[in-house]
Design goal:
Strand content: 35-45%
Distance between the termini: 36 Å
Largest sheet: 17 strands, mixed
Number of strands: 28
Number of helices: 14
Structural class: alpha+beta
Helix content: 10-25%
Shape: globular
């Protein structure tokens, strides 16, 4: 079978390659490929290929679909579709070789040599194809090593600052000289000095001299900090800070905030000056700091009260080194109202609940009231009404659901009860958030009421976010309908009683997010985690009160982490890896992990070859299709997704190839879930595995995703039958079993 498939693929490739001669004008050659030979480990081949400006036509997986689209488009008069053929141009090849040489010089390889050969491959010659490959042969030579670094300046204070910060230097002794690192060192010195009062300093005052004549392949680096022509570098002190509101009214009413020594020109703005003053880190009498300026701007923007934030600085006395700071704030409308009709096609989370969704229609209304109590607060009301239906091949498991959601949030731009500490933090934003929500859900099986409340501190900067919730309270109340009793087994109903009915959670939670992503990063990772949630232990008496009213007070400890790694090959290709893991441990002999905190698998954001909650826990296989109980106390998930561009236009069409691996397990044996517990001896055989292909319509403001997931290994079956892909072409399995996932946004 494999041999036949290989022969078919080879024949298709050969046929398409032969026909590709139609795409190439006579006496020319299509650029087939660029490659680099001879690069060592110190310089990545991909970095050298990035210097090549003469690039072949893009591939869609293995075919140059854009090239063929251009050819067929021209046949019908559409000349702008796809990509025209990229022909071999020896002048462009020569320039690319020179680019590689210059890049290697910047990396410290001053004696490098780059040559190139333009030739046909054996395959192209055999089939008489007008295609050529360009090979760049690189001889880097020995790198020039930094032997000594010397900072030179006539200003002793500047020299002291630099010497004390040498451990943060971007260049190091005994490493190859790197021009990019030299540029980073120039920026570091400029930032260092501007953050320590030297307002007039900029990178142009930093110059480098490289001496290679002292020792063979050794470099002495002199870093010279020059003075301006008319005056020496000096620290600048802030003389005054003024805030001007642009409200459309010019009343020039002025308020002086004595505590922060800031003058406010209110122009009719009704807000406490202290709120704005607490977010301005530039203070009268302090030395100028670029970091304080940037943080001030970010904090004022994060208040979400102003359509424009501007900060201007003027030198009032050059000799004394005094600065006047003026902050101009243009107010935005007090109320924002948004109406969002929705097509429901993916699972969504409502506050702390797991309200899984499938397909349907919804209306969402949002009202935002800014500066509601005149202290910069933001009050949000969100109302969502939805009617949803789940489509399956089994008509017995299709159902309609009505959901009504109400969410209210009050955001205060300070750390309540810790105001001074929050204001002293030099980060982009601090806030205290109060959230109260209600969800009503009814379907043919049950009626559900869910009430979550939360009180959360949030600290955020460019790359991280930290949250601490001293109080999270949620109550889930459910009433079952006759149809559930008619279809569900006794064990199913017993499980629902344990995890789904009348659960009360009173917890504290610590969460966080961190990323290494920068504006030009080609490789970066991020981690999002609920580091720790502890429920019930700190309020033990509530457990006794709950029993009296028929409410299960949940006591547990829970944690999870979501790690993602991005590799951006170029503007058209990206690889994304994701690893997720979490565990929730019930505390007490009769305690269970409640439904809202259990782990799930399947669905368009997890395992795309299964519908939500149709796999797990472990190797457990349900006799019915009712899915609420198919959750776990331990969850593991891995995703591999290769993303590529297909069409780049006003609306981009992107594609993806993916593999998903994961499942959930219980921590202990349970007679209601045979083989549902985690076992080190067999858990690897209980991972569900699927592959698939996806298409994404990117309209900048909205991304629609269509993913087709095909199961490969299904733990719902006995071990010998789990390789379900073996029967892909039997009885129409390949058309019936795979799952179409229609969703909004990327899965991760």
């Amino acid at each position: 079978m494999a041999t036949k498939v290989t022969l078919v693929l080879f024949s298709v490739l050969a046929l398409s390659s032969c026909k590709s001669n139609k795409l190439v004008p006579d006496n020319t050659y299509l650029l087939q490929k660029n490659r680099v030979v001879g690069a060592n480990e110190a310089v990545a081949e991909t970095d050298l290929l990035d210097q090549v400006r003469h690039k072949p036509n893009r591939k869609l997986i293995i075919f140059k679909a854009h090239l063929w689209a251009n050819y067929f488009g021209k046949q019908v008069g559409l000349n702008k579709i796809g990509e025209p053929p990229v022909l071999v141009d020896t002048s462009a090849v020569r320039l690319s070789a020179e680019n590689i040489e210059r890049y290697l010089v910047k990396r410290g390889y001053f004696d490098n040599q780059v040559t190139y050969v333009v030739e046909q491959t054996k395959f192209s010659k055999a089939f008489k194809l007008r295609k050529q490959r360009v090979t760049y042969y690189v001889k880097e030579g020995e790198p020039y090593i930094v032997q000594k670094i010397n900072y030179q300046t006539t200003n002793s204070e500047i020299l002291g600052l630099i010497n004390r910060s040498k451990r943060d230097a971007k260049i190091s002794i005994n490493k190859p000289v790197d021009f990019e690192a030299l540029g980073e060192e120039r920026s570091r010195i400029s930032d260092l000095l501007r953050n320590n009062g030297f307002y007039s300093f900029n990178p142009s005052f930093v110059a480098f001299e490289l001496d290679t004549a002292i020792m063979p392949r050794q470099v002495y680096v002199d870093i010279n900090i020059s003075d301006p022509d008319s005056f020496a570098h000096a620290k600048k002190r802030i003389e005054s800070v003024r805030v001007v509101y642009q409200t459309g009214i010019q009343s020039f009413d002025t308020i002086r905030n004595v505590k922060h020594n800031i003058t406010f020109v209110m122009n009719g703005m009704d807000i406490s000056p202290a709120v704005i003053a607490n977010n301005i880190l530039l203070k009268e009498g302090d030395y100028f700091s670029q970091l304080d300026l940037a943080t001030t701007y970010e904090r004022l923007v994060s208040l979400n009260l102003f359509s424009n934030v501007g900060v201007s600085i003027e030198e009032t006395d050059v000799k004394k080194g005094l600065l006047d700071v003026t902050v101009v704030l243009k107010t935005s409308p007090k109320f924002d109202f948004v109406w969002q009709p929705q097509i429901i096609s993916t699972e969504q989370r409502f506050s702390n609940s797991q309200s899984s969704r499938n397909y349907g229609l919804a209306n969402e209304f949002s009202l935002k009231n800014k500066n509601v109590f005149h202290n910069g607060e933001e009050f949000n009301i969100n109302i969502r009404t939805a009617l949803e239906t789940q489509f399956t091949s089994d008509s017995n498991s299709a159902f309609s659901t009505f959901i009504q959601e109400l969410n209210t949030e009050l955001k205060i731009p300070q750390l309540l009860f810790f105001r001074k500490r929050g204001n002293a933090l030099k980060i982009n934003s601090v806030s205290t958030n109060f959230n109260a929500s209600y969800l009503f859900e009814t379907n043919p099986f049950y009626r559900r009421n869910f009430f979550p409340l939360s009180y959360t501190y949030e600290l955020a900067d460019k790359r991280f976010r930290f949250t601490y919730s001293p109080l999270l309270v949620s109550l889930n109340e459910a009433t079952y309908k006759q149809k559930l009793f008619d279809q569900a087994s006794a064990s199913y109903l017993q499980t629902l009683e344990r995890i789904f009915t009348n659960n009360l959670i009173t917890s504290q939670q610590i969460g966080g997010f961190y990323t290494t992503k920068t504006a030009d990063a080609k490789r970066y990772w991020s981690i999002r985690s609920n580091l720790l949630e502890v429920s019930g232990i700190w309020l033990p008496r509530i457990t006794d009160y709950g029993k009296a009213f028929g409410v299960n007070h949940s006591t547990f400890i829970r944690t999870d982490a979501d790690l993602r790694y991005h590799v951006i090959f170029n503007e058209n290709n990206e690889l994304v890896l994701r690893g997720y893991g979490g565990i929730g441990v019930p505390i007490g002999e009769k305690s269970v992990l409640p439904y809202e905190r259990r782990f799930i698998s399947g669905g368009s954001n997890y395992l795309r070859g299964w519908r939500l909650r149709t796999v797990g826990p472990g190797a457990f296989s349900a006799a019915d299709n009712l899915q609420l109980t198919r959750t776990g106390e331990l969850g593991l998930l891995g995703n591999f997704e290769y993303r590529f561009n297909i069409i780049r236009n006003a609306i981009d069409l992107n594609g993806a190839l993916f593999v998903d691996v994961g499942n959930v397990w219980n921590l202990k044996k349970d007679t209601l879930f045979p083989e549902g517990e985690f076992s080190p001896d067999r858990f690897l055989q209980e991972f569900a595995i699927n592959s698939g292909i996806g298409f994404r319509l990117d309209m900048s403001f909205l991304l629609l995703r269509f993913d087709w997931g095909v199961p490969l290994w299904d733990p719902n079956f006995p071990l010998e039958d789990r390789a379900v892909i073996q029967g892909a072409f039997k009885d129409g399995w390949i058309f019936k079993r795979p799952v179409w996932n229609i969703a909004v946004g990327y899965p991760f």
